[in-house]
């Protein structure tokens, strides 16, 4: 694969996902090869298994695969941010590293951002989720409360499949849990959101290594903080440069 300047960067945060590395990278390649010049950035969030070694092995075969490593685990939001900051593409797409997010939907998400003149984010909306009934219930409650307070018009913010303009993401205020509030914060900056239905599937192997924000009581302070940020937003100035 070419390592020339990419137009799209795929960011995958992972922690202890050694057995899922090679299969998912192969699926990303199958979805994107020949469509855009792209790079894949895996952010190894302090893994203690063979994740780093598996990535190094695939990197020897793929010139467009990069690995960033956190010395210790700092969470999914921090991992996504590290990947976006290192990205060379103007459009960044994200997906979880456990295989539940199908890379076949990446082209639709990327195209939605690319073709929308004012689209800042394309958000995957899961159908046919493979979680337990209790987790689905938690998610419905949390999404309902979040939408009622923030009015972000999004029924599912927890899906890892997203695509957005890199510059838009980097202008957002950073905090732990940011990736769960992207629709509300992108709207706050005056951009539109595109939605793409995606089909959830079971993870390839292993167990979840990141906690679920779906438990409303964990994220209540973040919810209040984002509500405050939206309330305090001033209109973006219309700026022109005056020439001499």
UniProtKB/TrEMBL annotation:
CDD domains: DPM_DPG-synthase_like (cd04179). GO terms for biological process: lipopolysaccharide biosynthetic process. Residues 9-169 form the Glycosyltransferase 2-like domain. GO terms for molecular function: undecaprenyl-phosphate 4-deoxy-4-formamido-L-arabinose transferase activity. The keyword Transferase applies. Pfam families: Glycos_transf_2. The keyword 4Fe-4S does not apply. Keywords: Cell membrane, Glycosyltransferase, Lipopolysaccharide biosynthesis, Membrane, Transferase, Transmembrane, Transmembrane helix. InterPro entries: Glyco_trans_2-like (IPR001173), Glycosyltransferase_2 (IPR050256), Nucleotide-diphossugar_trans (IPR029044). GO terms for cellular component: plasma membrane. PANTHER family: UNDECAPRENYL-PHOSPHATE 4-DEOXY-4-FORMAMIDO-L-ARABINOSE TRANSFERASE, UNDECAPRENYL-PHOSPHATE 4-DEOXY-4-FORMAMIDO-L-ARABINOSE TRANSFERASE-RELATED. This is Glycosyltransferase. It comes from Bradyrhizobium cajani.
């Amino acid at each position: 694969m070419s390592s020339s300047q990419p137009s799209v960067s795929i960011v995958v945060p992972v922690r202890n996902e050694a057995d899922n590395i090679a299969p998912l990278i192969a699926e990303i390649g199958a979805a994107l090869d020949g469509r855009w010049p792209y790079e894949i950035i895996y952010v190894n969030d302090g893994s203690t298994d063979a994740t780093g070694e598996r990535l190094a092995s695939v990197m020897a075969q793929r010139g467009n695969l990069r690995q960033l490593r956190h010395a210790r685990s700092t969470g999914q939001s921090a991992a996504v941010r590290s990947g976006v900051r290192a990205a060379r593409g103007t459009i960044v797409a994200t997906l979880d590293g456990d295989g539940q997010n199908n890379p076949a939907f990446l082209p639709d998400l990327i195209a939605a951002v690319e073709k929308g003149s004012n689209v800042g984010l394309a958000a995957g909306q899961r159908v046919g989720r493979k979680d337990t009934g209790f987790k689905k219930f938690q998610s419905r409650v949390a999404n309902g409360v979040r939408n009622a307070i923030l009015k972000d018009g999004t029924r599912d913010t927890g899906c890892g499949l997203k695509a957005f303009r890199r510059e838009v993401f980097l202008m957002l205020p950073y905090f732990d849990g940011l990736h769960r509030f992207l629709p509300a914060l992108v709207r706050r900056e005056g951009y539109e959101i595109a939605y793409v239905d995606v089909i959830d599937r079971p993870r390839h192997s292993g167990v979840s290594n990141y906690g679920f924000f779906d438990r409303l009581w964990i994220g209540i302070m973040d919810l209040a903080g984002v509500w405050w940020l939206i309330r305090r937003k001033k209109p973006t100035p219309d700026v022109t440069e005056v020439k001499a």
